[in-house]
From TrEMBL:
It is found in: Membrane. Residues 25-41 have a biased composition (Low complexity). The keyword Lipoprotein applies. This is Lipoprotein. Residues 1-26 form the signal peptide.
Length: 286
């Protein structure tokens, strides 16, 4: 497909993560729970603090595994990555205490979910941006989109507002004069039909729509490349929709989480992102 990259500013408020090894003195094999909670001993001496972090498989899980395999031990950490295929479970698992932190979301999404679900979480600084893209199985240029087309769009509010801004830049919807854009508040133009779809299924929905606006992580997981497959790509310029590490306000692992937050903003991680996603589908935000 041909790609025409446009420069847009996300229309959302600016604010938008395995197992443990045993300790040097191994626990009794029958005491499984104790073994899972024990710290492992680093090569430099001292115990490693285990952090269980929920994450989307790509790129979040990949970034966390890079940190775990290359940087965590020296910082006294062991990162256990728990993968999730949706945007709801990681926050619920963090609230229940099943996770120590999660890494999959933007601050605008976190704020929207916190207001709706009563979360008391803390967000770190931006780690990376996954630009939205417009993809299609039916056309090779956005200019070829016909009137009355079906347009797939994510159904969660903050990501939906961001996607609608990208569609507005293409003259496909008119945004409201005030308030956050949503399928209910925008005016579709050229007779297009907005079809709301769960984020993880947007790629699979491509045969059923004419185009779809797909989040970077879902596009990657579905085998799509922003540089090679997208008709239009969201610009990172002045874009607040960066992904962040999130943890509970009352966590008892604050020091360890601060270390992980620092590692996620290290030069090593920046280089890993730039050399792993050379197509620009994941961009460092620091």
């Amino acid at each position: 497909m041909r790609k025409s990259t446009i420069f847009s500013i996300a229309a959302i408020a600016a604010l938008g993560l395995a197992g443990c090894s045993g300790s040097a003195d191994k626990a009794e094999s029958s005491d499984t729970q104790s073994a899972e909670q024990s710290s492992s001993t680093g090569s430099a001496g001292g115990d490693l603090t285990v952090l269980k972090v929920g994450a989307s498989p790509s790129p979040h899980g990949q970034i966390l595994r890079f940190v775990d395999e290359n940087l965590a031990e020296e910082a006294g950490l062991k990162i256990e990555v728990v993968e999730y295929a949706d945007y709801v479970q990681p926050n619920e698992a963090l609230r229940s205490g099943d996770l120590d932190a999660n890494f999959f979301q933007t601050v605008p999404y976190l704020e929207s979910e916190s207001e709706a679900r009563g979360f008391d979480f803390v967000a770190g600084e931006g780690v990376h941006l996954e630009p939205l893209g417009i993809y299609s199985d039916k056309i090779e240029d956005i200019k070829d989109l016909k009137d009355g087309a079906k347009v797939g769009i994510i159904n969660d509010p903050s990501n939906q507002a961001r996607a609608l801004k990208l569609l507005a830049d293409q003259g496909l919807v008119e945004l409201p004069e005030s308030g956050e854009a949503s399928v209910a508040t925008v005016t579709p133009l050229r007779g297009i039909e907005l079809v709301q779809v769960e984020g993880p299924t947007l790629v699979r929905a491509l045969p059923d729509v004419d185009i779809a606006v797909i989040n970077g992580n879902f596009a990657q997981e579905g085998g799509l490349s922003a540089s090679e497959d997208a008709l239009v790509v969201e610009s990172p310029e002045n874009n607040p929709a960066v992904n962040v590490l999130v943890w509970s306000a009352d966590t008892d692992k604050a020091d360890a989480i601060k270390k992980l937050e620092d590692l996620l903003h290290s030069d090593d991680v920046k280089t890993f992102i730039e050399t792993t996603w050379t197509d620009g589908s994941v961009i460092p935000a620091f």
